[in-house]
Amino acid sequence: MPARSDDTSILCVGSVALDSVETPFGKAERVLGGSAVYFSAAATLFHPVQVVGVVGDDYPLSDLDFLADRGADLSGIERREGASFFWAGRYHFDLSSRDTLETRLGVFADFEPKIPASFRRARYVFLGNIDPVLQHDVLDQVESPEVVACDTMNYWIEASRDALVDLLARVRILIINDEEVRQLAGEPNLLKAARWVQAHGPELVVVKKGEHGAMLFGDDWLFFVPGFPLEAVFDPTGAGDAFAGGFVGYLARAGSLAPDDLRRAMVYGSVMGSYAVEEFSVRRLIDLSQADIQRRLVQFREITAFETHVGQFAGR
Amino acid sequence: MPARSDDTSILCVGSVALDSVETPFGKAERVLGGSAVYFSAAATLFHPVQVVGVVGDDYPLSDLDFLADRGADLSGIERREGASFFWAGRYHFDLSSRDTLETRLGVFADFEPKIPASFRRARYVFLGNIDPVLQHDVLDQVESPEVVACDTMNYWIEASRDALVDLLARVRILIINDEEVRQLAGEPNLLKAARWVQAHGPELVVVKKGEHGAMLFGDDWLFFVPGFPLEAVFDPTGAGDAFAGGFVGYLARAGSLAPDDLRRAMVYGSVMGSYAVEEFSVRRLIDLSQADIQRRLVQFREITAFETHVGQFAGR
Fold it and tell me: Is A279 helix (H, G, I), strand (E, B) or coil?
């Protein structure tokens, strides 16, 4: 794919971090991490991305060359004196829970997203999981995006609830996990929680359920994709951002939010999430080929497709 | 459907109980319950069933007339002096967990399944969740069933493990929930746990995941069906047995274990499980029409189907 950055690119704003991760299978020290990195590693396999973030002077920026090579414009990553955002965590035996060992915000503590002039006409915007106040700032700087997709987390739902609820009115697609949407809506039933969100702005709600898959809630329809059954999940970090990258990346490529495209986008998101967890950091996404992506898309179809044969009992 | 009971019927052995259930939405006292009842209430919508179980002299047998009306042969339900199996439970607010308030085995404590002569040539057998030793006894009494499907629970995995593992060699389809299969196989990964089961006998493993759906593991393929998104789950009791009823009922009706039929059977199982939870006891299944079943089957297809459009990026 030729590198390019223009109005049709996806603008992605989020964290650009270093992660130290321990799982039952091994350990990786100070590897590429952060929502903007996982998102872009997945999305650039579908469509060009413009990345906005901040790193310290310790960041191995050349490790992001693979993103530039496939169409990411990294000129919006500000480099400042100080330490990059650093997160260290340890996953438990079954990988479904983890302990945070250390979080050092570094230069990310004062992050004020500055959207370069050439990025401001982006038609697709992905707001990674950062303070909703900053997500507002980003939208204030872009002209008239067609599609704003937004992630968040339990911390902001508690600490910055008003800004987050206000933000929803500016967002077309909320991407959130099942616990978070229940918390945000104050409603344990997912259908009702999604409807609560829709009443506050977004016409589309994507609910990520980890190994249990993901659901898309449209106006009067919904779509479900399972988690891809893997024999070994190596490192779950970033799966949700990789999902968002595949999802938004495909939509931008298709240039459409038609239900058929949204369904495929959900599956492409799941494809990217499933690959992301096969190795530490974004490693599995670096060399991933279009053939790998298409192969797993077909596998998703094989594990979910059935013929209804309605009427086969007629007359019996 | 004309009532009939012959070699092509499904033989179902399990509990025939009375349940008192409390949920956040209401309360039902001494209503129809038990694995054989839920199974039959679902399966008879697809195929005739022969039921074997035991009840006390307090059981409202006429409440089972709806089963006879649609093709169940209830002559294998033994009526003995004493109290019927009684279970009382209370579901928590989110319905995903419950407390057992009371269990009185009554006449079920000495249950020794006696398979009537006219049931012994059944080609399809469903072994409900009872002591694996009794499940062996049932199989000793039937001639040469083509398809034996079997359910179990954590209690038997602990208390009667050897008999259960021996039983697996006589079972073609194990129907079990996700926690149970992990416990049985001693393996947290579902793919590996299913393979462990298959190495011990069953060629097919159905893993029920409650609201997260169900998976079927075949020899070198698998299939996934989501839980049906319901706005209100009224009473989760018996959902797994209703699933098994739809699953085995459809297979017996189709007379085939071809992958396409197994896939549809998984969806019919999910249809029945999803209806079962909409009311207390088996109430929702009593008046359920074939049109209701087909309508929800189509809804399952709508929430899972997507077109791969592989090749749409070719040349870009």
Answer: coil
